[in-house]
Amino acid sequence: MATVELTKENFDQTVSENPFVLIDFWAGWCRPCLQFAPVYERASDAHPDLVFAKVDTEAQQELAGAFQITSIPTLMIVRDQVAIFAQPGALPEAALTDLIEQARALDMEEVRAKIAAEQQGAGDGDAGTAQA
Fold this sequence. Notes:
Layout: E1 4-5, H1 11-17, E2 20-26, H2 31-46, E3 51-56, H3 61-66, E4 74-79, E5 82-88, H4 93-105, H5 108-131
Parallel strand pairs: 1-3, 2-3
Antiparallel strand pairs: 2-4, 4-5
C-alpha cells in the first residue's frame, strides 16, 4: 500500500477516520530519513490494513511544530486518536515490525484508563501544590 502524504488540511481527518496510523516525520535533505524510507515502504506493504503516512517537515512546518518534532526522522503511532508512540531515529526493519506488533497488542481501553488516571493525578497534584 502506498503511503499517504499528510498535510495540516488532511491530518485530522486521516487520524480520526483510521484506527491505526503510523506517521513518519521526514525531510528530503535528511539522509537517515531517506535510508528509512524503503524500510517504511516495505512495512506498509506487509501491513496493508494499517495506514502509513508521511509528513514532510519542510513543507508542513506548522504540523511538525504542533507535534514538537525537533529531530527527524521521527516515527509516531496513533491508535484510536491517541498517540501511543513517538520516537526520533530510523528503525531497522525488524525493530519496526516488532514495534507494530506491540502497538497492535495494546489494550486501548487500558491505555485510556491510564491516561485518565495520569490526568487526574496531575490535577490532584496541582491542587495540593496550590494549597501548600
